[in-house]
Automatic annotation (TrEMBL):
It comes from Oliverpabstia intestinalis. The keyword Repressor does not apply. InterPro entries: Asp/Orn_carbamoyltranf_P-bd, Asp/Orn_carbamoylTrfase, Asp/Orn_carbamoylTrfase_sf, Asp_carbamoyltransf, Asp_carbamoyltransf_Asp/Orn-bd. It comes from the Bacteria. Carbamoyl phosphate binds at residues 51-52, 101, 129, 132, 264-265. It is an enzyme of class 2 (transferase). It catalyses: carbamoyl phosphate + L-aspartate = N-carbamoyl-L-aspartate + phosphate + H(+). Its EC number is 2.1.3.2. This is Aspartate carbamoyltransferase. Keywords: Pyrimidine biosynthesis, Transferase. Catalyzes the condensation of carbamoyl phosphate and aspartate to form carbamoyl aspartate and inorganic phosphate, the committed step in the de novo pyrimidine nucleotide biosynthesis pathway. The gene is pyrB.
């Protein structure tokens, strides 16, 4: 039985198959409409979510299955002190697969060790968010036609943004990917990503503060929200929250084919006036998230559709 804790749990070849499957689902949704008849996904969300939880539930429903779960720790037995290991043992009796989001780094991994069903990490604290990365890879590959030979700018909260950590880990496996890390000093990428992932891989990267300088050289701009819930101090958050605002003026500095991605939710970091720019791909990205989660459910449940 396989779980998904990190994007590295799949080899590059396996990822290629998964993304191909997601594109086939996009083209032929009816072929997959009964692939998971009678199956259930449990979504155990101890932290707020709109997209990720609903996208897992929609993915399973699109495959003919059903969804159950909870959307906050308060409404689960966690509020009575139950451990994630006990919760997953119980949920293993109710569902065939589970997606778990938790504020503590490593909680889905702990759950997977006690689980009788595949567990998907749907975001663990400031650590990883592998299914957002699968979404990002599918979006880039579908809209750019490749995952290698790209210059990607990651902008905003690179310290606490788990989507950024997972995406960098995934992209260093492709040749000639250049990274421009755009953040204020206080929100720069954690040391372990800089040293053990970027430097260790030998990929070219630079760390800058000004978005304007980076824009002209990017194929993809990945904007992120300042992660309010991970700050210890409200004043620091208020000081940082509007550090970057991508607007129409700044978009003039970017190339005609630069994709703008964002895992969402957006706060102020992308002005709504950018939404109508053909380079804005963050709502398409949400749709790709459903296809890739459908592909992931089929893969982890080992369901083959001919
Ligand atoms: C992201 C997350 O939860 O890390 N959201 C998402 O799942 N699409 C990004 C964020 O909350 O800023």
């Amino acid at each position: 039985m396989r779980h998904l804790m990190s994007p590295l749990d799949f080899s590059v070849e396996e990822l290629e198959h998964l993304l191909d499957l997601a594109n086939d689902i996009e083209q032929n949704p009816e072929k997959y409409a009964h692939a998971c008849d009678g199956k259930k996904i449990a979504t155990l969300f101890y932290e707020p979510s709109t997209r990720t939880r609903l996208s897992f539930e929609a993915a399973m429903m699109n495959l003919g299955g059903k969804a159950l779960g909870f959307s906050s720790a308060d409404s689960s037995s966690a509020s009575k002190g139950e451990s994630v290991s006990d919760t997953i043992r119980v949920v293993s009796c109710f569902a065939d697969i589970c997606a778990m989001r938790h504020p503590k780094e490593g909680a889905p991994l702990v759950a997977s060790l006690a689980s009788k069903i595949p567990v998907i990490n749907a975001g663990d604290g400031g650590h990883q968010h592998p299914t957002q990365t699968l979404t990002d890879l599918l979006t880039i590959r579908s809209l750019k036609g490749r995952l290698d030979n790209i210059t990607i700018g990651l902008c905003g909260d690179l310290k606490f943004g788990r989507t950024v950590h997972s995406l960098i880990e995934a992209l260093v496996r492709y040749p000639n990917v250049k990274f421009v890390l755009i953040s204020p000093e206080e929100l720069c990428i954690p040391d372990y990503i800089r040293e053990d992932v970027l430097k260790a891989s030998g990929h070219e990267f630079e760390e800058v503060t000004r978005l304007e300088d980076a824009l002209p050289k990017l194929d993809v701009l990945y904007m992120t929200r300042v992660q309010k819930e991970r700050f210890f101090n409200e004043d620091d958050y208020v000081r940082m929250k509007d550090f970057y605002i991508l607007d129409k003026e700044k978009m003039k500095l970017a190339g005609p084919d630069m994709l703008v991605l964002h895992p969402l939710p957006r706060v102020n970091e992308i002005s709504t006036e950018v939404d109508s720019d053909p380079r804005a791909a963050y709502f398409k990205q949400v749709q790709y998230g459903v296809y890739v989660r459908m592909a992931l459910i089929l893969t982890l449940l080992e369901v083959k559709v001919c």
